[in-house]
Design goal:
Helices cover about 5% and strands about 30% of the residues. The protein has about 950 residues and is mainly β. The chain has a domain of about 290 residues. The strands form twelve sheets. An eight-stranded antiparallel barrel has the order 7-8-9-10-11-12-13-15. Strands 36, 37, 38, 39, 40 and 41 form a six-stranded antiparallel sheet that branches.
């Protein structure tokens, strides 16, 4: 076996930098991505004749992570080894060119037929948010002039559940309607932008904003006359009737064009590269026909419109070289199934537009990437689009093939095999392994057999697998009995430091996050007991993370201060009480803090918010916190808010029905369900509830909206009996993990729920549900718990395993029972935590909240003077990536910490020291490890004193 002993190119470095780089390469726990420069070594299983420079033309590649940069860098001109400014590594081929530095790549040997290398994996933290990403590039066959797809298995700690399991993603870019600022309404009635139009986002994160078409037409005309660059003109097939958009945070300087019928998008980059999303009007016949699978459309819509997501279906460069993306549909979700590129010779003639729209069959394209899927057990279905979309498949194999002109067939280049944890109910990717071509041997010398067809099952040589490890629910030790596929729950009881002298079952006290630090505080609305220093009536607040009368930073979570008085506006101290039926806790203005809505059935009402006087003090008692009252006065012709919190309290629930982070009001009656939407996002709607309609709806540029106190009405749901919030069997919970609250009816032996779908619509079936049509719109869950209390006393819905779906929890006198939710489809058997704090049925003092700031749900027994809690997950979120082993000797370990715990420690340090904060004063964790390995321990760089 030959080895090339040429040194790797790199810039000169100091001794300290070399030592630190060595430590980073070996113990990459938090560092940014740094890459070895290398001379494109081919994998051991790839024939040398197909080994070309995959780095050339990388600016034409497109991948799932190629969103425009928030930092303003030109994405297309970025060097191949530079990490994505957004923090998510771009999916590049496994052979990179240029750049210098080091990377956690295990073994990187230069060109040689017998060289062995890793997959080019890379880990990168996002320092601005504390999250992290990990990327495994998929090496594809080279394209003509570098025009080829760029794919990678990409992990993000904030990633949800998708076709590659929890946290992982793979696919082409897409454009979709935005759902985190309100659910889509699909008012697609005008080609140009109008006030009712939904917001759009590119690739899941970059919000698009409309621009004035008239102004842009003038700019485009000027550029077309003054520049020869084709990128200065409108893309082919796009005219003035298309609406233009730009990224809200500009970086890639891409131009987005939406067709008047909302069926497709065309995106143009600065170098003339063209991306088409949604339906194709021309091109390869199979691709045109399959482009309908590249949109996720409302099944009730006949004809055009109603599209939630547009997937990338074609990409071409400025010379007409084309890449096609083909999708398959399953249960409403679009799965990337094939990518074709390197067009046949017949497509090389004519204009750029003719080459791009060449109608040669896809079978004649020279390179193909095929993605195979398998059924999965954890089928999560969501309704944020407005209808059911389920992810019932997961990626199992990726086949890379190339056309062999000599043999006249498409032959295998390599395969990627994906394996998931067989012991976990949730799809957790645990192994990726690369398989090369089957070998042909002659006289002991083996080479890849180039005649093996792409569908052949013949086995080739495999690299050692790359493996992944994750956090899990606790098992053994102090954990409860493990449930197959899930685990147990932690049973250690912890005591809150300086427990408040109040219980949460008191009529005037409960938990709020008053100062927006992510830690719940106790609010006691008893002005007769609490007063400010100048005698004003006040609310007593026990701040979490603080201690003493002044609220000094405690340096730890789950530690409460003494009561800090927060003044109440004069004249309102008699009504500001949690015991007042007209006062309801809710976040009325969407700022992430709890407010208190005061809504008697009058024209005038309002809400209290916690505010501070802007005093920069560490002690929370010195920060000037007080309650301010915002008054709402209805117009003279709209005097009846129709929400009677006093009389109808048992029939009313407050929840966010449309995911706009503004809390709405829902009421059940004997005939219909009524929903008063929080109108705070509309002009003049702050603090108001009701319905709205746009005047001259759909008119381009129209923004006049009419507000009303009339509610939205929909059919009364029925599950054997009509749904009524007064019924103790009817609860609220997120049963399918889509982030929307569902209406749940549970009893011993049966649990059904109606999925939330926005603006007062609940249940399956059509969104249109008139009076009397509310039957049979529910989802019934399998294996309902048979051991629950028939009266449902002490039975709660809460996500204790942190997978997004609410589990069923029963708090008994000295035990806690948990039944895990299986993706909204059924229940596990129960696991029991024993010897928990006493919970008498007559005193409902149990709350589910993250009292210690660990980002997990705690079960809290809030008894006056003795607050206790258990953390079912043991203080660590399950299903987080903790270790990566590439099979060739490189191990990456990842540790996680709580930002809330860092926050309270920093506050304590700030309050106890007059010296400025010094980053190098006391290295801990990875910093300390690097200092020890580099031999610099004790120096000024590692916490030593300055001589």
């Amino acid at each position: 076996m030959r080895f090339d002993d040429r040194p790797l190119p790199r810039r000169p470095r100091s001794g300290w930098t070399k030592a630190l780089a060595t430590a980073l390469a070996t113990f990459l726990a938090w560092s940014p991505i740094l890459a070895y420069a290398q001379e494109d070594p081919p994998p051991a299983y790839v024939e040398t004749e197909v080994d070309v420079d995959l780095g050339e033309g990388v600016d034409l590649e497109v991948g799932a992570e190629d969103a425009p940069s928030a930092e303003g860098a030109d994405l297309d001109a970025r060097p191949a080894t530079e990490p994505d400014p957004s923090g998510t590594p771009i999916a590049l081929p496994s052979t990179e060119e240029g750049g210098s530095g080091v990377t956690p790549q295990s073994i990187s040997l230069p060109d040689a037929e017998g060289s062995v290398e890793g997959m080019g994996e890379s880990f990168s933290p996002v320092l601005s948010s504390g999250t992290a990403t990990f990327s495994v590039p998929i090496a594809v066959a080279p394209g003509r002039h570098g025009v080829q797809p760029s794919l990678a298995l990409s992990y993000a700690t904030t990633g949800g559940n998708g076709p590659v399991g929890f946290g992982w993603g793979l696919g082409a870019p897409f454009i979709s309607r935005q759902t985190d600022r309100g659910l889509p309404r699909y008012v697609d009635v005008h080609g140009r932008w109008h006030a009712e139009e939904d917001r759009f986002i590119y690739n899941g994160g970059q919000e698009l904003v409309p621009v004035d078409n008239g102004t842009m037409a003038t700019v485009d005309a000027y550029l077309a006359d003054s520049a020869s660059d084709s990128a200065a003109t409108l893309p082919s097939g796009v005219d003035g009737t298309w609406q233009q958009y730009r990224a809200r945070v500009e970086g890639g300087f891409m131009r987005f064009f939406r067709s008047p019928d909302y069926e497709r998008w065309v995106v143009q980059s600065t170098d003339g590269t063209r991306f088409e999303f949604g339906l194709l009007a021309d091109g390869a016949p199979e691709a045109v026909g399959a482009s309908a699978n590249g949109v996720e459309r409302d099944p009730e819509v006949v004809g055009t419109g109603g599209i939630y997501r547009w997937c990338l279906t074609r990409m071409s460069d400025a010379h007409g070289s084309t890449v096609y993306y083909v999708y398959a549909q399953d249960e409403g979700h679009a799965y990337l199934s094939d990518i074709y590129y390197v067009s046949p010779a017949a497509c090389a003639l004519g204009t750029v537009s003719a080459r791009r729209t060449c109608d040669e069959a896809l079978a004649g394209y020279g390179a193909r990437v095929h993605l195979a899927y398998e059924p999965r057990e954890d089928v999560f279905a969501g309704y944020v689009s407005g209808w059911r979309i389920a992810i019932a498949q997961r990626l199992s194999r990726i086949d890379v093939s190339a056309y062999d002109d000599t043999a006249g067939v498409r032959t295998r280049v390599r395969r990627y095999h994906l394996t998931y944890d067989p012991l976990s109910f949730h799809s957790l990717l645990t192994q990726v392994q690369v398989e090369g071509r089957p070998q042909s041997c002659d006289a002991g010398y083996c080479v890849g057999n180039t005649s093996i067809g792409e569908t052949s099952n013949a086995a080739g040589e495999r690299l050692p697998p790359m493996t992944f490890e994750y956090t899990h629910l606790p098992t053994g030790g102090t954990a409860s009995e493990a449930v197959p596929g899930f685990g147990g729950i932690h049973t250690t009881v912890r005591t809150v430091t300086n427990s408040p002298p109040h219980s949460v079952d008191e009529a005037r006290s409960d938990l709020f996050d008053v100062n927006s630090d992510g830690l719940p505080d106790l609010v006691v609305t008893d002005p007769a007991r609490y007063r400010t220093s100048d005698g004003r009536p006040a609310v007593g607040v026990f701040f979490n993370g603080f201690t003493g009368r002044r609220g000094t930073p405690a340096g730890a979570t789950a530690s409460f201060s003494d009561a800090v008085p927060m003044a109440i506006p004069y004249g309102l101290d008699t009504v500001m009480s949690l015991g007042n039926a007209n006062v309801v806790p809710m976040d009325i203005d969407g700022d992430g803090r709890g407010d208190l809505l005061h809504m008697p059935r009058l024209r005038d009402y309002g809400w209290w918010s916690a505010t501070r006087r802007g005093v920069d003090e560490v002690n929370v008692g010195d920060q000037g916190w007080e309650w301010t009252y915002a008054n709402v006065r209805l117009p003279a012709d709209d005097t009846d808010p129709r929400i009677d919190l006093g009389r109808d309290a048992q029939h009313i629930r407050v929840l966010d029905v449309n995911n706009d982070h503004l809390i709405d009001v829902v009421r059940t009656t004997g005939t219909v369900m009524q929903t008063w939407v929080n109108l705070g996002w509309l002009p003049g709607g702050e603090g108001r509830f009701g319905s709205y309609r746009y005047l001259a709806a759909g008119t381009a540029g129209s923004s006049t909206v009419e507000l009303s106190t009339e509610p939205f009405e929909s059919c009364l749901l029925q599950g054997g009996t009509p749904v009524d919030f007064e019924d103790p069997e009817v609860r609220l919970g997120d049963m399918n993990g889509d982030g929307l609250q569902d209406i749940v009816q549970m009893r011993r032996g049966r649990v059904i729920y109606w999925p939330g779908r926005g603006e007062g619509v609940f249940g399956t079936g059509s969104r249109e549900c008139a009076r009397g049509e509310g039957a049979n719109r529910y989802v019934e869950m399998a294996d309902p718990p048979a051991e629950v209390n028939p009266e449902l006393d002490g039975v709660y819905l809460s996500d204790v395993d942190m997978d997004g779906t609410d589990d069923m929890v029963q708090v008994r006198f000295r035990e806690v029972d948990v039944w895990f939710n299986e993706a909204g489809q059924g229940w596990t058997r129960r696991t029991i935590a024993r010897n928990t704090p006493t919970a008498p049925a007559f005193a409902p003092r149990v709350r589910f909240t993250d009292i210690d700031g660990s980002a997990t749900t705690d079960i809290v027994w809030a008894n006056a003077g003795r607050w206790e809690f258990i953390d079912p997950t043991g203080g660590q979120r399950p299903r987080l990536l903790t270790a990566v082993r590439n099979g060739l000797g490189a191990d990456t370990s990842i540790e996680y910490g709580s930002s809330a715990e860092d926050y309270v420690r920093d506050l304590a340090d700030a309050g106890s020291s007059a010296e400025p904060f010094d980053w190098s004063a006391d290295p801990v964790g990875p910093d300390l490890l690097l200092c020890e390995l580099s031999g610099q321990s004790g120096s000024t760089k590692c916490g030593g004193s300055d001589p």
